[in-house]
Here is the input.
Amino acid sequence: MPASPDDLLAYLTKLDVETTTVDHPPLFTVEDSQALRGDIPGGHTKNLFLKDKGRVSFGSAELLEEVWGVKPGAVTPFGAINDRQGRVTVVLDEAMMRCERLNFHPLINTRTTGLKSADLVKFMRATGHEPMVVALGRDGPPVE
Here is the structure.
């Protein structure tokens, strides 16, 4: 059974990661989330679940739920808590990681949880996912 948002927040607390979580209506698109950006400080991103079997493509909704424990519209790096077999390679954008604070869905798209970018790496490592930090073609950090 995948971790719940409350399980995730408890895990982050256990790691001494300070978070702030905001409840809001469901967000399914970047456009939906733009209205909240002024109210929630920090970097906001678009998270993708991709697969590479000879060519890069989006992973199916079924694979996303099986491996990452989230539904489409709630893709988040926090899904690493559910990937106990280490099937996913986490790639973080170098420009994004220059933000002091980052925001992601805590496994559901009706909340947004913010944390320090360094604590995101701490979380990833604690779940057994050593993140790859690479320049993905954008010069500046995500919209804050």
Notes: The helical segments are 5-14, 30-34, 61-68, 94-97, 117-126. The chain has one domain: 5-134. Residues 107 and 143 are 21 Å apart (CA to CA).
